[in-house]
Design goal:
The structure is a homodimer of 466-residue chains.
Chain A: H1 13-26, E1 35-36, H2 39-46, H3 50-62, E2 66-69, E3 73-76, E4 106-107, H4 120-133, H5 135-138, H6 148-162, E5 171-174, H7 177-188, E6 193-197, H8 202-210, E7 214-218, E8 220-221, E9 224-225, H9 227-232, E10 237-240, H10 254-265, E11 271-275, E12 300-305, E13 317-320, H11 323-332, H12 342-353, H13 356-382, E14 388-391, E15 398-403, H14 409-418, E16 421-422, E17 424-425, E18 440-444, H15 453-463
Parallel strand pairs in A: 4-16, 6-7, 6-10, 10-11, 11-12
Antiparallel strand pairs in A: 1-3, 2-3, 5-13, 8-9, 12-13, 14-15, 15-18, 17-18
Helix pairs in contact in A: 1-3, 2-3, 4-12, 6-12, 13-15
């Protein structure tokens, strides 16, 4: 009979009993096949309750130390297999995070927004109302492409703001454009050739390659992507940002848009991905019609995000699929759960449909217009007219400054880095790795602290001197 | 000289001017290469301001109708290319959403939680505090794997709750396990053979296949996955839910766990994915150590989610990578933005670290324990003992009911469907499509409405009668 001295002060009795028996098995005192006393017998022997014994036995069974035979009792299991196996080569234990991007004191390259620009009080108010009014909806799994209220609000916004006529069922809401790109490649098919603009947004290439596609780079003329190169490169899909190209700022005229659509219509499997990432911040004139709105062949996938117009950290983007791809989406990918929390979806839907989003954009457009002017004034007060040229365009949250300098881009970037200032050059966006002199730098002004700007611009000027 | 009769009542003057000129170009009155009057001349001629003319010209340039030659003036562009191209085959216009799962009046298969179980008031309180205290942090892009505060809170929770010793840098937070699986396949490498448990969670197969992997099915004995079949199937990766297998409810004993680890250690590229999806709701005894905590070879990726323990709609899951894969993650995938909004991340971090999560789990465990008992009581009051067998296990949010019936599963499911009742059978989870008689149905009780349960159980009984 097993006899242990169980003390309440060592914790729950069943746990002590469990540990004692386990230890006896591990030390070979109890051996494979040995029969244990019945619960009743052991309980009586130890002066404890049957329930306590039962809990200990159950735990030992769960962990594989004991097994039961019906109508017979409890037996010690074969525990030879229960010894840990040590691998011949010890696994590494140290985690090396790749060096995070060092924090810069002043960052001309940041694409975040100033935290005082986010409409916190309205957002908090709507969120509070949502939580108190929509308990049931918040706990209900949304459709794969997002709640109807949000898609409908987006469709209405696009109709008013971009003249686009869209069925909310064409819209897929997801946790960021990167996620949506990877969904999209599964719809369009993988092992395709994607053409991306060069210079351009480098991350795109990494994302398409990560998703099993080949990327071809096509250069730009003053109207955007060169059609001849596009034709020659054998692309199936062209990823374009016609409203405001990064980094050059080019806006593609309507004529080139029609040429692009004509190209897409030549073959059945060709598509255009229209990346409209900061179209809300066109400063002058009316916006040019989107490719999506002049597409008669169902060739354009329109992509946009609330990262620029609201905040990148709320992680909501969407794509508008042409009907054929939308049908394919419902057939093939509807089993994947929507990646955006219902809390954010309902809040954003209300935020848009009550008109706050439009107000916010209008406010931000004025704000950015003024800020852009202040930034330009400061630059012009530091540089003489012959020392730099501002490459402005009517749209978006960045512009270019071309310095009249003999110093290479990399050297200027290095010199500024030493002072805690981060800046990117157009050369950095060249994916063919041309390292020739450009002298042209990107000023992302949405997150710039204007109060320290003069100092940073002076440093840029100093860095550009031989 | 262009002369138009512009009227303020038709809207902004620049817009009327723009429309008049565009119309003249489209009708061929103005032709490719024609020179337009200077801004000053046209303004004087029409009796409007230079700025108005400038706005109209800018819009026309933007849209590609005009171009400028420096020092010379404005010219009409070649607009032949600006005509819409119509595809030879008209694109489909109708969107057919695949029939959404019809809403059932009573659903034994729902994996959602009751909305009154979510801790709305505490969540709302912490969210409100987060918004008022952390404006700057909320607007700052989080690290790729989630904010440190959340990962650190998770690591601490796993240490206390599961005895796991983890560096927060091993943790990757993402918008749902489906998203994390697709990330993981990019780390482990694609075109691998994944072994999944059969019967099991069907979606897994779809997800791994969507991510370019082959799936092999391995059947189970009473201790979980059969080791011999695993060895024979040539798998590189085994996806296992050892704490509580769906649907059988099997808990894998420690001995089988060590066997699994031994298998993984035999080859360098072998891994085990440990899916611990509802381990929080073990009802009796202590939890068995996780595979992750007894893994000495860096072979186990631990996955868990807040979908069961908090709500599936907040879309937060996490994985714990062994150091080698963590390093690979930082090297290869750190460029991808974290998919969870900062609002949710900070709120959840506080929720856990202030002890609310543990309290919530304890409360829910009691609640589910009681609910499970009520559900079982109702089932036992409707069925005679010889009419059904309850296959209970100590853990999780579902159990099985085996009916003593000659009616096939599909027929029972169909009969219930007609009455608006949804139920799934263990056969449905068989991915080899064996359609033999099982008579065993899955009772997910977390979202059941106990008040209508008796009626639904009676319907189940009726449906099982010949």
């Amino acid at each position: 009979m097993l006899t242990y001295n169980l003390k309440e002060k060592d914790g729950p009795l069943y746990k002590s009993l469990y540990e004692n028996i386990r230890s006896d098995i591990n030390r070979g005192i109890l051996r494979c096949g040995d029969k244990l006393p019945s619960k009743r017998t052991l309980a009586r022997n130890l002066g404890i309750s049957i329930i306590t014994v039962e809990k200990a036995y159950d735990q030992l069974i769960g962990e594989g130390y004991l097994y039961t035979l019906p109508q017979k009792g409890y037996y010690v299991a074969n525990t030879v297999l229960m010894q840990p196996v040590f691998p011949s080569v010890p696994a590494p234990r140290i985690i090396n995070r790749t060096r995070e991007k060092e924090k810069a004191d002043f960052d001309f390259s940041s694409n975040m927004i100033e935290s005082n620009c986010f409409p916190f009080s309205i957002w908090a108010k709507i969120l509070r109302e949502t939580i108190s009014m929509k308990e049931r909806e918040l706990m209900t799994n949304p459709p794969c492409n997002g709640i109807y209220e949000l898609r409908s609000a987006i469709a209405k916004h696009l109709s008013g703001f971009r003249g686009m006529s869209i069925d909310p069922d064409q819209i897929v809401v997801g946790a960021g454009t990167e996620y949506l790109y990877s969904l999209l490649t599964k719809l369009i098919g993988e092992n395709k050739v994607y053409c991306i603009e060069n210079p351009g947004y480098k991350k795109l290439k990494s994302i398409y390659e990560l998703n099993h596609n080949e990327c071809r780079l096509v250069s730009l003329d003053e109207y955007g992507i060169r059609m001849e190169e596009l034709r020659d490169c054998g692309a199936d899909v062209a990823h374009i940002s016609p409203t405001h190209h990064f980094p050059t700022g080019i806006t593609m005229p309507v004529s080139r848009r029609y040429e692009l659509l004509a190209w897409a219509n030549e073959k059945e499997d060709r598509y255009i991905i229209e990346d409209d990432y900061d179209s809300e911040f066109r400063i002058n004139g009316n916006p040019i019609p989107t490719l999506q709105s002049i597409d008669t062949g169902g060739k354009v996938v329109y992509m946009n995000t609330f990262s620029k117009s609201l905040a990148s950290t709320i992680r909501i983007s969407y794509m508008v699929l042409p009907p054929e791809l939308a049908n394919k989406y419902y057939e093939k990918l509807a089993f994947l759960a929507c990646t955006v929390p219902t809390f954010e979806q309902y809040t954003l839907a209300e935020f848009i449909s009550r008109g706050y989003y439009e107000k916010h954009i209008n406010r931000m457009r004025l704000y950015y217009g003024r800020k852009r002017k202040r930034v330009l004034d400061i630059i012009r007060s530091v540089f003489r007219e012959d020392q730099c040229r501002i490459i402005e365009n009517d749209s978006g949250l960045h512009f270019l400054i071309e310095l009249n300098t003999e110093v290479g881009d990399a050297e200027i970037i290095r010199r500024l880095q030493e002072q805690g200032i981060r800046i990117g050059s157009v050369n950095d966006c060249d994916m063919e790795g041309k390292s020739g002199k450009s002298g042209t730098f990107i000023i992302n002004y949405s997150n710039l602290n204007v109060d320290c700007l003069e100092e940073a611009v002076l440093a840029l000027k100093d860095a550009s001197l031989m």
